[in-house]
Write a structure and sequence with these properties.
Blueprint: H1 2-23, H2 34-37, H3 39-53, H4 59-73, H5 77-103, H6 117-139, H7 141-156, H8 158-166
């Protein structure tokens, strides 16, 4: 879950910077219409937002599925309920941002922050690279999940790493 969550949240913060640069504000009530003006920024938001919400085929789906599966295996209804409720609330919050910032009405008094064109494309390019990294995590989710489960299993058996230290 952490291998998915940290890069996805980082990308969303980077996209927040892009939005603030375009809208001259980070406030939802002072933003709107960004999808029509800058579809690239909309795509850079949509991919990590869908992943954070746990929508397949993005990495968040595998991460949430792993948490729910572990909760079911341990008969922990609290873990399962918390994961499902958190996923639902995340969908709602990402939808609110999407509808307000990207599809909402653009306020008349919004002027983009004057940024050099090169800097604007550098910001977008670095964010796109980070989004690509989250897609790579999604593509290798099965292998990362296996690796994480093996690491967790080894951590639960201290004899494995104590023997290594003593030898």
């Amino acid at each position: 879950f952490l291998l998915h969550h940290m890069p996805v949240k980082t990308v969303l913060f980077l996209v927040g910077g892009l939005i603030e640069n375009e809208q001259n504000s980070g406030s939802l009530d002072k933003s709107g219409g960004l999808a029509a003006r800058t579809p690239l920024v909309a795509a850079l938001f949509a991919i990590p937002a869908l992943s954070l919400a746990g929508i397949p085929p993005f990495s968040g789906f595998v991460a949430k599925l792993a948490v729910v599966s572990a909760g079911v295996e341990q008969s922990s209804s609290a873990v399962v309920a918390a994961a499902l409720v958190a996923g639902f609330l995340t969908v709602l919050s990402m939808n609110k941002i999407w509808m307000g910032v990207f599809w909402g009405e653009r306020p008349d008094d919004v002027e983009p922050i004057p940024t050099a064109v090169g800097n604007r494309w550098l910001m977008r390019g670095s964010t796109a690279l980070a989004v690509a990294a989250t897609l790579a995590i999604a593509a290798s989710a099965g292998a990362l999940l296996d690796l994480s489960e093996r690491a967790a299993s080894d951590l639960m058996d201290p004899a494995v790493y104590i023997a290594e230290v003593l030898s």
